[in-house]
Amino acid sequence: xxxxxxxxxxxxxxxxxxxxxxxxxxxxxxxxxxxxxxxxxxxxxxxxxxxxxxxxxxxxxxxxxxxxxxxxxxxxxxxxxxxxxxxxxxxxxxxxxxxxxxxxxxxxxxxxxxxxxxxxxxxxxxxxxxxxxxxxxxxxxxxxxxxxxxxxxxxxxxxxxxxxxxxxxxxxxxxxxxxxxxxxxxxxxxxxxxxxxxxx
Length: 200
Description:
By secondary structure, this protein is α+β, with helices and mostly antiparallel strands.
C-alpha cells in the first residue's frame, strides 16, 4: 500500500526538532506571521524542513503550536512548537497564492515499530547512571522510541537531521551508539580527573 501524500504549510529553518521535542520561535516575517495565524485559526500543523548550507533538505518535522507565549502590537509572536512526525519533502513551493507563505507535498515516515535493541538499552542505562546517577528499569524502554532516547543526548542539528533521514531503526541506532559511547567515556574521564584533583 502506497503512503499517501499531503500538502502542508512549510516554514524552512536551520533547526531540527525530534518528535515530542519542543522549541521557542520568534515570528516576525509577514509570511510566517500569516502562516502561524492560519494554523492557530484552523488548529493546523506546519512543516519545518531543515535548511543546511542555504539548501532546503528533503527531510523535516511536522510541528504543532503548543503555546502562544506573547503577541506584539506589530503582529509578531513568540510561540512554543512541538515536533509531531517526521516527513519526507516531495515538492516545495516557496509561495502558494493567495497566501504569502509556501507549502510542501510530503509523505510521513513509516511508523517505527521496532523497539530499541538490548545493546542500546544497556548503553542508555549506563549513560544515565554515569551522567545523572539514575538507575532505570528495563521496562521503561517498552514505552520509549528511538527518538525518545535521542532526546537525552545533546545532538547538533546536523546529527538530528541524519537521525531523521536514516530509513529504519537499525540505521538510526548505528548513529546513536557511537555518540552515547563517547559521552560515557568523556563523563567517566571528567569524573576521574575531578577525583584526582580532590585527592591532591
